[in-house]
Specification:
The structure is a single chain. This protein is an alpha+beta fold. The protein contains 5 helices and 3 strands. Strands 1-3-2 form a 3-stranded antiparallel β-sheet. The model has no long low-confidence stretch (mean pLDDT 92).
């Protein structure tokens, strides 16, 4: 998948994978890959700055936790993050429907 296609949608994708449960960074990356059947393989250099940005915006919060004996920062959605995700999902569906209508003969 082209990187340009992802631009503008990364935050919504990260929020969506955190909707199920709190996850640490590599688990977020893995969840995106699994959900997209490997079409999106996000590098950690893209994901971690985005998570920090989402945290500063109050959409996610983080805490240190122990996972498999290792200390990791675990991220979870805030109530504002859940509201934002809902808005993003609606906007994406409207966008996808509009593009589908434009591309369908």
């Amino acid at each position: 998948m082209k990187a340009d296609a992802l631009r503008g949608h990364l935050d919504a994708i990260l929020l969506a994978v955190l909707d199920d449960e709190p996850r640490h960074g590599y688990a977020i990356i893995d969840a995106v890959q699994r959900r997209t059947d490997g079409a999106l393989a996000l590098p950690s250099g893209t994901v971690y700055p985005a998570l920090r940005r989402l945290e500063r915006a109050g959409l996610v919060e983080s805490a240190w936790s122990t996972v498999c004996g290792r200390e990791r920062r675990t991220y979870r959605l805030t109530p504002t993050g859940r509201q934002t995700l809902s808005v993003e999902r609606t906007a994406w569906q409207e966008f996808a429907n509009t593009i589908a209508a434009a591309l369908t003969p």
